[in-house]
Structure formats: structure tokens, C-alpha cells
Specification:
By secondary structure, the protein is mainly alpha-helical. It has 2 domains: 55 residues; 216 residues, MetI-like fold (Orthogonal Bundle), CATH 1.10.3720.10. The chain contains 13 helices and no strands. The longest helix has 33 residues. The relative contact order is 0.10.
């Protein structure tokens, strides 16, 4: 009898554990912030542990994967001699200017493209065509068009983000429910007042999310932008280190760009949460 009860308890425990496992991996199942944080820390700890194990044990040569300590040493030296800060400031300036110009043109054009079919017929296919062209292929042309000064770097970042941004903003405009626009017409609004008072406020959270995504692309095109006759910037330091197979400097530059990109992403996330607290996507 006791054995039967023990077996029943064991089966029930296994069943409860199976149900919990199913609930944990249910589609879009939410988890608490503490669990999310612990999983994230465990993931990064695992990756760093594998890196340290691979380099310290000698499984991977330093030329291919440097030791983590040498990468941090390179970063600390760059901070001490101020070269890292100077290059970071230059790169942030290029990213910011290229992204702002892309946003200043891409947002209004995207809204028009998503609102009027005739505008879409002009802008949509053109952006669809150009966005598949590789940005590095434009570098020689940019040097001819804009020279080799700061404008050329800004233009490369602009090309890498503008066309994608315009198309995504157009999709954001199309995502606004037609019923909302029809209701505004019923209440007596005209075409342009509907765009400014109804359409744009309704797509506000989506615009910010699109900008959050495209600023990430801007950071990825940084190295490409600094191919244009640069003597400063984080991308330049990576390319210079590549010539001498200085992999610890390469990884240091990549990590710094990743950290700056992550900071930018978090700033956008905070801004979205503050600007649109009512939107469920602002919680991410």
C-alpha cells in the first residue's frame, strides 16, 4: 500500500513538473524580472567562461582569439592615454549626424509613403531597390561625391539607415487602423489635420521602435563609414589593428562599439517607456 502511494506521488510530481515545464515554454509566457535577469547573467557568464577556457587552455591561438585579460588591458590603456575617449567621441558624432539626417528625411517621407498610394508608387519601389545594394559598394562613390572629410562618413551612415527607415515608417503608418481615420473624418477633420492630429500620434510608439532598430544598424555601418580615409574613430582603430594582426585591439574596439550600441538601445527603451507609458510594447 505504501509503495502504491509512493508511486502515485512520484507520478503526480512528474506530471506537475511536466505541466510547469509546458507553462514555462508557453508562447509569449511572461516571466518575472528577476528570472529574466538571472537567465541573462547566466548566458553571459557561460559565454565568458567558454572564452576564458578556450584561451587559457591553449585550444585557440591568441592570434584568432585573444585572452579576455589582454582585451581589457587594451581598453584600460586606451582610457589612460585618452585615445579611446577621443575615438569614441568622433564615432558618436558621425553616428548621430548620419542618423539624425536619415530620420529628418525618412520619417516624413515614410509617413507620406504610408498615407498616399501615389507617393508610395514613387518612393516605395525606389527604396526597396536601393536597400538591397551593399553599403560598402557606395564607399568609392561617396569619396567622389563628398570627398574624404567628415561629410563622407556621415553620408555612409545615412545610406545605411535611410532607405530601411523610410520603408519601416511607411509600414508603421499603414498599421494605424482604418477605423480610427474614418472616425476622425466623421468628426470633421480634414486630410492634413488627420495626419498630424490622428495618424502621427497613433503611430508614435511604432516610430520610436523603428528608430530604436535603425540606430542599431547605424552602429553596424560605423566601420564601413570609417573606411573613407579616416585617421580617427573606433572603426579606424579596428581597421588599423587588423593590419598588424592585433586581435586584442580588434576585440576591444568591437566590445566598445557593442557597449555604446547597447547604451543607445537602452536610452531609446527608456524614452519610449516615458513617452508612451500606455503602450504595451514600451515595457520591453
Amino acid at each position: 500500500m505504501r509503495k502504491s502511494k509512493a508511486v502515485i506521488r512520484s507520478v503526480m510530481k512528474c506530471h506537475a513538473g511536466g505541466e510547469k515545464m509546458k507553462n514555462d515554454f508557453r508562447l509569449r509566457q511572461d516571466i518575472c524580472k528577476q528570472t529574466y535577469f538571472l537567465i541573462t547573467v547566466a548566458t553571459f557568464t557561460f559565454i565568458i567562461g567558454c572564452w576564458i577556457l578556450a584561451t587559457v587552455s591553449g585550444m585557440v591561438k591568441p592570434m584568432f582569439l585573444p585572452q579576455l585579460s589582454s582585451v581589457f588591458t587594451n581598453i584600460i590603456e586606451g582610457i589612460k592615454d585618452n585615445s579611446l575617449c577621443e575615438n569614441a567621441v568622433v564615432s558618436i558624432y558621425r553616428i548621430t549626424m548620419g542618423f539624425l539626417v536619415a530620420a529628418a528625411l525618412g520619417i516624413p517621407l515614410g509617413i507620406l509613403c504610408g498615407s498616399f498610394k501615389k507617393v508610395e508608387a514613387v518612393i516605395g519601389p525606389l527604396c526597396e531597390f536601393i536597400r538591397y545594394m551593399p553599403v560598402p559598394a557606395f564607399v568609392p562613390l561617396v569619396m567622389v561625391w563628398a570627398g574624404i572629410d567628415e561629410v563622407a562618413k556621415i553620408v555612409v551612415v545615412f545610406i545605411g539607415t535611410f532607405f530601411q527607415m523610410a520603408l519601416m515608417i511607411a509600414d508603421d503608418a499603414r498599421s494605424v487602423p482604418e477605423d480610427l481615420l474614418s472616425a476622425s473624418y466623421t468628426l470633421g477633420t480634414k486630410r492634413w489635420s488627420t495626419i498630424f492630429k490622428v495618424l502621427i500620434p497613433a503611430m508614435g510608439p511604432r516610430i520610436m521602435l523603428t528608430l530604436r532598430v535603425t540606430i542599431g544598424w547605424a552602429w553596424t555601418y560605423l566601420v564601413v563609414a570609417e573606411l573613407v580615409a579616416s585617421n580617427s574613430g573606433l572603426g579606424y582603430t579596428i581597421l588599423r589593428a587588423q593590419r598588424f594582426f592585433n586581435t586584442d585591439a580588434i576585440f576591444a574596439g568591437i566590445l566598445i562599439i557593442g557597449i555604446l550600441g547597447l547604451i543607445t538601445d537602452r536610452l531609446f527603451a527608456i524614452a519610449i517607456k516615458k513617452m508612451f507609458p500606455w503602450d504595451e510594447r514600451s515595457s520591453s
